UniProtKB/TrEMBL annotation:
Keyword Transmembrane helix: yes
Full protein name: Family 2 glycosyl transferase
The keyword Lipid metabolism appears for this protein: no
Lineage: Bacteria, Bacillati, Bacillota, Bacilli, Bacillales
Pfam families named among the record's database cross-references: Glyco_tranf_2_3
UniProt entry keywords in alphabetical sequence: Glycosyltransferase, Membrane, Transferase, Transmembrane, Transmembrane helix
Length: 450
């Protein structure tokens, strides 16, 4: 995806938005009502499938399987579709913020990528002071030296810190002790920011209510041309992850202010004790904010491009780590302990994810094989009750993302084959990988940052 520096002072005009305003609470309950209606319709429609499958595995087992394959995914997808139709990104109150801020980049053997990351920081159109901390977390290469040299050549206010104890949370907390600005941004060492990214992220924070303590940026794929796996992930970031972020942002409870690119209030991070000792430190940190009755927003026009794994082993390790991070967050902060009903629902939805992933892995994938032999016990229900909603949500997000890209002077890369395989095959990869992550967390296997 091509990065340009065209500047615009207005917010993008998103499709499907009307001038009729509904409060967030009314959107929430109306979306649930329509999603429940869809699920009841699905249950009535699926009775023949239940009976056919019940003759093989018993009726109770058939109900459990179809619930995990069609009813619950259909409910969640219907809730998302209706919520996206209601979504209306509020306008910025300020477009030219100048508040000083600190940027933290935790590094472990990043000598090949850190210079380009710093170069994109030097191109930011942000008018305020940016103090950059590169934290060398026990690297064995020339990360520190390359960072110092690049910072000097680019004229950045850059400081290189050293943290010998392995672990991303150790690196970030080391830098946090040096931060004296109101805002702090974290980015990954292989993440490239759009030239307007910092300005837009800070603009969203300064336009937000006082209860907002963090804003997650939009992270997209920079290396999608590398191979088939990267092409699949391009659509996952562009449509899948972005749709979830927009849904959560609408209800003021973005569940992950991801470390790859997010902004936080420094004093609130200190209040909750800094980044936790967790494999999903950004997930657990965000849930700690929500537990304290803070809100977390998402800004779709503050775009960063990250490098995704192109080796399946690395991809599986990353996504299983994300699954483990979700379980860590659920164990540390129970959904029913969340003070706001929106975040109770959003975090509580994750309670059913292991069940859905297990059922998809052990039932839907074998059911797909059976469908090639004319046996549609499983795939028929899924195709009829879930796939249309998934396609609709992808269409809505594509329209939203197209408006964002036009605003930022970007173009959407053509990747039709990747999209087809993303819709048809991606979940068949993701669910087994997630199940492996759940098993790792249950067995308390060793944590690996990368």
């Amino acid at each position: 995806m091509k990065i340009e520096t065209r500047y615009k002072s207005r917010m993008p005009s998103f499709p499907f938005q009307s001038r009729f305003y509904l409060p967030v609470g009314e959107k929430f309950w109306l979306s649930h009502g329509l999603a429940l209606t869809w699920m009841v319709f699905s249950i009535i429609l699926s009775v023949p499938w239940i009976k056919d499958l019940g003759e093989v595995v018993t009726i109770p087992v058939a109900i459990v399987l179809i619930a995990g394959i069609a009813y619950l995914p259909g409910y969640l997808n219907a809730f998302m579709v209706v919520s996206l139709l209601f979504d209306r990104q509020p306008a910025f109150k300020t477009l030219d913020p100048k508040e000083p801020l600190s940027i933290l980049i935790a590094c472990w053997n990043e000598e090949k990528t850190i210079a380009e990351t710093l170069m994109q920081l030097a191109k930011q159109d942000y008018a305020g002071q940016m103090r950059i901390y590169v934290i060398d977390n026990n690297s064995t290469d020339q990360t520190a030296e390359v960072s110092k040299r690049a910072g000097k050549e680019l004229g950045l206010d850059l400081h290189v810190l050293t943290e010998k104890t392995p672990g991303k949370h150790h690196a970030l907390n080391k830098a946090l002790s040096y931060v004296d600005t109101k805002y702090v941004i974290t980015i990954d060492a292989d993440t490239l920011l759009h030239p307007q990214a910092v300005r837009r992220l800070v603009s969203r924070m300064e336009s937000a209510p006082k209860e907002v303590c963090a804003v997650a940026g939009a992270v997209l794929v920079r290396n999608s041309r590398d191979n088939w796996l990267a092409r699949l992930q391009e659509w996952d970031y562009f449509l899948g992850i972005a749709s979830i972020k927009r849904l959560q942002g609408l209800y003021q409870g973005t569940l992950v202010a991801q470390g790859a690119y997010s902004l936080y209030l420094t004093d609130v991070i200190n209040k909750v004790g800094g980044w936790p000792d967790a494999i999903g430190e950004d997930i657990v940190l965000t849930w700690a904010f929500l537990e304290q009755n803070y809100k977390v927003f998402f800004e779709p026009t503050a775009i960063a491009f990250t490098e995704v794994p192109t080796n399946f082993r690395h991809f599986a390790r990353q996504r299983s780590r994300w699954a483990r991070g979700m379980i860590e967050a659920l164990k540390r902060v129970k959904p029913w302990e969340q003070p706001r009903i929106f975040t109770r629902y959003l975090t509580g939805s994750n309670l059913v994810m292991p069940f859905l992933d297990v059922v998809y892995t052990v039932a839907w994938i074998p059911g797909l094989v059976l469908s090639f032999f004319g046996i549609y016990w499983i795939v028929g229900a899924h195709t009829l009750l879930v796939l249309p909603l998934a396609l609709l949500s992808n269409y809505l997000l594509y329209r939203y993302q197209k408006a964002v890209f036009q605003e930022l002077g970007l173009r959407i890369r053509k990747n039709r084959i990747g999209f087809i395989f993303f819709v048809l095959c991606y979940q068949m990869i993701m669910s087994p990988v997630s199940v492996w992550g759940y098993i790792q967390e249950f067995l308390q296997r060793q944590r690996v940052w990368k």
